[in-house]
Every structure is written in structure tokens, then in C-alpha cells.
Amino acid sequence: MLTLEELMRIEPLTGVAVPQLGTPESGKVRDIFRLGERRLMVTTDRISAFDRIIGAVPCKGQVLNQLTAWWMNQTRDVVANHLLDLPHPNVIVAIEAEPLPVEVIVRGYITGVTPTSLWTMYLKGDRKPYGVRLPDGLRKNDALPHPIITPTTKAAKGGRDQQLTCEQVVREGLVEENLWNQVQEAALALFARGQERARSAGLILADTKYEFGLDKGRLMLIDELHTADSSRFWQDEPRPGEEPRNLDKEVLRLWLASTGFQGEGAPPELPGDRAAAIAMVYIELYERLTGEVFHPAASPVAEHVARCLEHQADLVGRNSP
């Protein structure tokens, strides 16, 4: 694995400019260029927490991108997904699916420090968060009786996701009932597959987020899958009163919480050594799940990514009638 010092010398990828493709649609982490019926997704090294971009973590985007591609290739038998190609470690070529307006969070444990986390809500006395009845007497990081689905809205850029119940998703017309049933079935099956693989790597998949879309009426998984950004992975089953070792973005959330930042006001600056330490966590997760050694992309990454995107645009142009 790369050392802390080696990671600190790597320039993070915070964005890329490709004039012939125009201005990308930029999210917290990904820059998306639309190209006909395809989308070119650049996974940058930006990192966010509490719905705020905090800084950049070297190699993070590559880890997320490659891990998502690995998982999507492992789970095509569970549900279709939008992955077409991985032309660069930071780039995915994907089907231009129509996203469903709901994020699907599956939780196997009661945990978290954010305002929308199960543990935060439970600690405040809410025994029916997201419309799911929870028993009294649960402790932080306890396993739930069975995995549950806790949907949220998809907030616009700069906004915050709002809690939903599964009944609200249908009642408010966000997703048609039969389709929502398919979404729930796919999400729970993906979670079971993720937990199975995590266990074989000596890890626990505590919870995760899925996004789905439609391509010509066909349901498919989009965005990312079982990464350190979208999921909580633990080293061991936590003992009562103890915190698990996190191999995910929770290490950033916990550090931010330790500084007193909970999403309000200006976030603290992310030091270079802290960013590199977070990168090491992401890389460890990638290597343990995939069984592959991580190799950083060639530098300068932004230049190589731009050339890759230009090549993809040229390919589409040559194949157009």
C-alpha cells in the first residue's frame, strides 16, 4: 500500500476542463458530461460531509470509480446497471438513464452521527424513524433485527436530503408502486450481496446508499455501488460501548465532529496529512474487497482525464451518422 508520505505528494483531482464537451454538471464528487445517449462520469478527489464539500483526498476518486466498476460487474445478475466502460481509472462511460427522485438507503445497523442517521434520531426518542418501528433498548452500533430501507429525497445542489417513508414515496407520486417494489427488492438483494462479500473480506457492511434510474423503462442501478463514500464498512462487530474501526467516509465525519463542526458555519480546513490518512483508509477498503493491489493513475491525472474525455467525444463523433 502507498505510504502517507507518497500520498501527500500526489496532486488531488478536483476537476477537469474539456472545452469541446462544454461545462459539466458538477455534483459534490462527480463531474458529468453528457454525450448523446451516454454520460461521461469523472469521479474527482473532492470529499464532502454534512452536505458540504470539505476538501480533496488524493486517489479517492480513482478508488471510488474502480471499486464501483468492480461491484457493478459483480452484481449484474442482481439488477442491471448503467456501466458501459472504464476508459480511465477516474472515468466511467455510462448509459444516460433517467434518475428516480429518491435515494435508497439500506441499513443493517443503528449508527451514525449526522442529523438523518438512525442513531441520532433514536437517541432523541424517535422510535419510528422513516416510518420503521424500532424496539426500545437499542445501543449505538447494534445490529437491527433485519435490514431496513430508509429513503430520502434527492436534494438540489446546496440543499439537504429530506427523510421519507416507503409509503410516502408511493403516496406522493415520487415512484409508482410496482416500480418501487422492484427498487426495494433490488436494493435488499444488493445489500445482501454486499454483506456477503464484506464478510469474506473480514468486514461488515453496516449501511449503504443506492440510486436507481430508468433506461427505456428498464430499472437499473446508477451512480456508485458499495464504496467508502456511499457505505459504512467496519473492521469488526462492535462491542457494546465501543466504536468500530471505520473503513469509509465516517473517519472524516468523526474528525469533523471532533472539531465541533456539524454542518453549520464554515468547515475546518482539511490538513494534507489528514487527507492522506483518509486516502489510506479508502485504499485499504478497495484492496480488501477486490483482492487487488491499488496502483495510482499516471500523473498529471487531470491532463490524462481530459485526453480520455476528448478521445471518447471523438469516438462518438466518428460513429455518428
Topology:
Layout: H1 4-8, E1 25-26, E2 30-35, E3 38-43, E4 46-49, E5 52-56, H2 60-74, E6 83-88, E7 91-95, E8 98-109, H3 118-123, E9 143-153, H4 166-171, H5 177-200, E10 204-215, E11 218-222, E12 231-234, H6 250-258, H7 272-290, H8 301-319
Describe this structure in words.
- This protein is of the alpha+beta class.
- The protein has one domain (about 5-320): 2-Layer Sandwich (D-amino Acid Aminotransferase, Chain A, domain 1), CATH 3.30.470.
- Helices cover about 30% and strands about 25% of the residues.
- The protein has eight helices and twelve strands.
- The strands form three sheets. A five-stranded antiparallel beta sheet has the order 1-2-3-7-6. Strands 8, 9, 10, 11 and 12 form a five-stranded antiparallel beta sheet that branches.
- The longest helix is centred in the middle third of the chain and has 24 residues, at about 175-200.
- The mean pLDDT is about 95.
Features:
321 residues; alpha+beta; D-amino Acid Aminotransferase, Chain A, domain 1; 5-stranded antiparallel sheet; globular
What's the helix-strand series?
HEEEEEHEEEHEHHEEEHHH
Give the termini distance in whole angstroms: 47 Å
Biggest sheet details: 5 strands, antiparallel
Q: How many helical elements? A: 8
Radius of gyration: 19 Å
What is CATH's topology name?
A: D-amino Acid Aminotransferase, Chain A, domain 1
> Got a strand count?
12
Strand content: 15-25%
Oligomer: single chain
- Count of domains: 1
Query: What is the name of the CATH architecture?
Result: 2-Layer Sandwich
The general outline is: globular
Low-confidence sequence ranges: none
Mean pLDDT: 94
Widest beta sheet: strand line-up: 1-2-3-7-6
Q: Which CATH first-tier class would you pick?
A: Alpha Beta
